[in-house]
Amino acid sequence: MAASAVVSLLLVIFLVNYGEAILCHRCMSSMGGCGDHVVWRMYPWRDCGSSFCVKVIEKVPGEEPRYIRECEHILLKSTRHRLRMPVLRRHGYCVPARKNDPHNPLDTTDSRFTYCFCNDWNGCNSAVAKKISLTSMGLLTAVAYAILRNFFT
């Protein structure tokens, strides 16, 4: 009985941790296959924990747009992105970067950079969802408990 309770508890802990993470593409457009569309075979998903997947689009006049796909918490380590990243970060939002210009405080956005945020499915910054619903987790726990209870009795 105690062993089945421990196994059930471990199963629940595994499923809760499994449901919190999101996997994102991590690449730059200077690398082949990481332009407007990502060649997913070249850039496998990386674990981003519970942060957002971010796609940064830099529009340079006379050139093709540059893309950066990365985890939000990694981009926030860079001062360049930390100062430009919009304060409002929600799933599905693509917003222009902040312009921190002390000489022109009324000009608040920089339209050369666009930050797109997502966190609903793996690889959304480019698919199979990694999140597991609470109902599925409860059902799996009940099934595991029933099987293990019969196994250990």
From TrEMBL:
<dbReference type="GO" id="GO:0032222">
    <property type="term" value="P:regulation of synaptic transmission, cholinergic"/>
</dbReference>
<protein>
    <recommendedName>
        <fullName>Protein sleepless</fullName>
    </recommendedName>
</protein>
<keyword id="KW-0732">Signal</keyword>
<dbReference type="InterPro" id="IPR031424">
    <property type="entry name" value="QVR-like"/>
</dbReference>
<dbReference type="Pfam" id="PF17064">
    <property type="entry name" value="QVR"/>
</dbReference>
<keyword id="KW-0325">Glycoprotein</keyword>
<dbReference type="GO" id="GO:0030431">
    <property type="term" value="P:sleep"/>
</dbReference>
<feature type="signal peptide">
    <location>
        <begin position="1"/>
        <end position="21"/>
    </location>
</feature>
<dbReference type="InterPro" id="IPR050975">
    <property type="entry name" value="Sleep_regulator"/>
</dbReference>
